[in-house]
Structure to design on (405 residues):
């Protein structure tokens, strides 16, 4: 029994023939016909014989094989399956490599194609980057639980409710991405964190919008001919969002129709179609005036490169002392259609780029109401550019006349 261990020698291993050679204690050298060799340890746990590879010879020497075999025999004596224990240790080691910050970035990159402009504006990633990753970015994703998430988002849960909600949503996506990669994560962690944080007290407020009756006077005050004023005028005339307008490329315009690529549109889930915007005579006039600023094909280029920023038009309104925001002109237009016209809801909503109706209804309704929208946008352009209308509005405000629209 004394000779049960260490039967092989280094020279004997090197000269071993094809077959299995016992070193004792369950350690075997398996020599293959192709000249290669493998160390194998046989142990019995829970009444079952298990064989686990310890490495290839000569990369793993006889001495190293014996040391590793001693370690796993000790594990087996504790009543543990050495193969399962090794797998557990590997998972533990792998878990420490997959930090939340790395998984979050991988999740973002995998979703860029789904995001507007391939996510270049950074809005999808910024809630994570600003409010989650500074605290949890270097934490293994498998270690993150609801308490970690609660403690991270608690400071902004009520004071910046919308941002906190977005951060929680993005974090949930990242956790699901980690699970898809085969990592062990708690997929319910974000929902549990919401329960711990409680209902948000903050009420989300709508973007401040100008009353539609005041739009003509404001529109006509944008008479300086600057690139920002022209951009804001076209934003008002078309009722589009700022992103597609800022990235308006001249090759998107054909005649009196501006075609916005589907990738640049928001709020059109369920369709991959480009969006056609009918251009009124006033809108075409603004575009013609803005062409002198065009650079690299973009109608509204930035000062040095790219296009004008998202805050350029907002800053102009701030300088005017207005609390209303450029995005609010979409609401102004929608209120005008509801209060001053008899426009069908489907037509009015389509003007804003909204998808209406269920999937089945949309499958049968192929029209985008272009002709109806063309007439409506022409009427809107005439209304806000009409100086006589502006004078009537001033009289209404002074109380000298009551006007019905």
């Amino acid at each position: 029994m004394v000779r049960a261990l260490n039967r092989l020698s280094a020279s004997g291993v090197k000269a071993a023939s094809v077959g299995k050679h016992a070193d004792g204690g369950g350690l075997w050298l398996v020599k293959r016909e192709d000249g290669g060799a493998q160390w194998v340890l046989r142990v019995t746990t829970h009444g079952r014989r298990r064989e686990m590879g310890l490495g290839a010879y000569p990369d793993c020497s006889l001495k190293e094989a014996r040391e590793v075999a001693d370690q796993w025999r000790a594990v087996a004596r504790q009543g543990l399956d050495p193969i399962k224990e090794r797998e557990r240790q590997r998972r533990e080691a792998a878990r420490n490599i997959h930090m939340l910050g790395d998984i979050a970035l991988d999740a973002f990159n995998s979703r860029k194609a789904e995001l507007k402009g391939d996510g270049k504006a950074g809005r999808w990633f910024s809630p994570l980057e600003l409010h989650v990753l500074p605290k949890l970015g270097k934490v293994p994703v498998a270690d993150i639980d609801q308490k970690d998430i609660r403690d991270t988002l608690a400071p902004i849960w009520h004071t910046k409710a919308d941002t906190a909600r977005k951060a929680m949503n993005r974090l949930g996506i990242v956790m699901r991405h980690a699970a898809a990669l085969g990592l062990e994560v708690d997929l319910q962690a974000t929902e549990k964190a919401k329960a711990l944080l409680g209902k948000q007290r903050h009420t989300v407020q709508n973007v401040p919008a100008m009353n539609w009756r005041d739009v003509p006077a404001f529109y006509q005050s944008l008479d300086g001919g600057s690139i920002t004023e022209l951009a804001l005028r076209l934003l008002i005339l078309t009722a589009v969002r700022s992103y597609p307008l800022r990235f308006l490329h001249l090759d998107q315009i054909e005649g009196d129709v501006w075609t916005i690529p589907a990738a640049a549109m928001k709020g059109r889930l369920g369709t991959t179609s480009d969006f056609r915007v009918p251009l009124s005579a006033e809108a075409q006039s603004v575009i013609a005036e803005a062409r002198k600023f065009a650079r690299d094909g973009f109608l509204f280029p930035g000062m040095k490169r790219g296009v004008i920023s998202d805050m350029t038009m907002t800053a102009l309104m701030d300088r005017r002392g207005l609390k209303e925001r450029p995005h609010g002109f979409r609401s102004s237009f929608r209120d005008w259609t509801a209060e001053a016209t008899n426009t069908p809801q489907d037509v009015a909503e389509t003007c804003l780029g909204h998808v209406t109706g269920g999937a089945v209804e949309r499958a049968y309704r192929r029209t985008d109401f272009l002709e109806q929208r063309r007439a409506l946008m022409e009427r809107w352009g005439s209304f806000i550019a009409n100086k006589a209308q502006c004078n009537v509005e001033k009289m209404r405000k002074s109380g000298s006349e009551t006007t019905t629209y």
